[in-house]
Structure formats: C-alpha cells, structure tokens
Fold this sequence. Notes:
Layout: H1 2-23, H2 36-45, H3 48-52, E1 75-78, E2 81-83, H4 88-93, H5 97-106, H6 123-135, E3 157-159
Parallel strand pairs: 1-3
Antiparallel strand pairs: 1-2
Helix pairs in contact: 2-6, 5-6
The protein binds heme C.
Amino acid sequence: xxxxxxxxxxxxxxxxxxxxxxxxxxxxxxxxxxxxxxxxxxxxxxxxxxxxxxxxxxxxxxxxxxxxxxxxxxxxxxxxxxxxxxxxxxxxxxxxxxxxxxxxxxxxxxxxxxxxxxxxxxxxxxxxxxxxxxxxxxxxxxxxxxxxxxxxxxxxxxxxxxxxxxxxxxxx
Length: 172
Ligand code: HEC
C-alpha cells in the first residue's frame, strides 16, 4: 500500500513536471529571438514607414506591400538641401545581417531622417529589421537623389521653413 501510494505520487509529480515543461518555450523560439514579425513591429513603432513608405500616412497606416520601405518620391527641403527618404530595400540588400547591425549603429544622415533614434535599437531590433526589410520582396528603384541647397530639384518636395513671426512680417 505504501508502495502504491508513492508510485502514484511520483506519477502525479512527473505529469506536473511534463505539463510545466510543455508550456515553457525553448530559448531559441523565445521572445528574444530576432524575427520578421518583430522587425515589422519595430518599423511601425519607430516610424520608418512614415517617411520611407509612399502613401502610408495618407492611407492611415495601411502598409502597401508593393511600396513598403521602397522610399518616397516626395522630398523634404530645408537649409540642408532636398532629401528623399531612401529605398530601404536597396539599402538593406547591400549588407548581410552582421554588417547591417554595424552600419545602422554608425548611420548619420541629413534631416529629417531621425538617425539618432537608432541608438535605442538593441541587437534583436536591428537583426529583425534587416529580416523584415529583406522579406518585403524585390528592391525596386532608388528614390530621387539628394539635391544640394543651391540646386533645383526635379522631383516634388515639401518645404520645411521656419514660420514667419508676426513681429518680422512687413506692415500692411
Ligand atoms: C521624418 C522622415 C523619416 C523617418 C521617420 C525615417 N527616415 Fe530614414 N531617411 C529619411 C530621409 C529624408 C533620408 C535621406 C537622407 C539623406 O539624403 O541624407 C533617410 C535615410 C535613411 C537611411 C540611409 C539610406 C542610405 O541610402 O544611405 C536609412 C538606413 C534610413 N533612413 C533608415 C530609417 C529607419 C530604419 C527608420 C525608422 C527607424 C527611418 N529611416 C525613419 C527620412 C526619414
């Protein structure tokens, strides 16, 4: 009787252990592994689509699979000249995953690219972003090239200019 009881206890214990193991994911599949899904999440949260995906803001956040991160034909003009959000598929295709991580950590760019925000990306974010960008498909064509301040762009652009303050406005 004593044997039967301890055998039963052991069976219950091992069943409980098995159930516990079954719900704990293996580390490789855990939440910390880089993934295309996390890259998509990061790209949305960090606002990459806002500028690098044409039509994204106008469609209230619908990601057009054909346009996703292929850059924008509409530039931003300011004292720095006129910049066009680059085609990130072409950019990402130039690097393997390790090189991409290094490149993004060293990236400096002209306005309004918020390159300084990349400092908040950890390694998983950067690896995931690379996987996400590569998953988007054919790189397509480059965005219009940078135009220096003293030259006229041939592609459309939005002007970033300081507001004219009332005190400096000429009197009527
Ligand atoms: C406010 C608009 C804006 C946002 C938001 C933005 N970018 Fe940019 N990005 C630009 C512009 C404009 C350029 C081109 C700058 C230039 O010509 O120097 C650029 C350039 C880049 C480049 C350099 C490409 C090259 O060919 O050298 C990379 C990489 C990049 N962006 C990645 C990102 C990522 C990743 C995000 C999201 C974290 C992001 N950008 C968010 C506007 C933006």
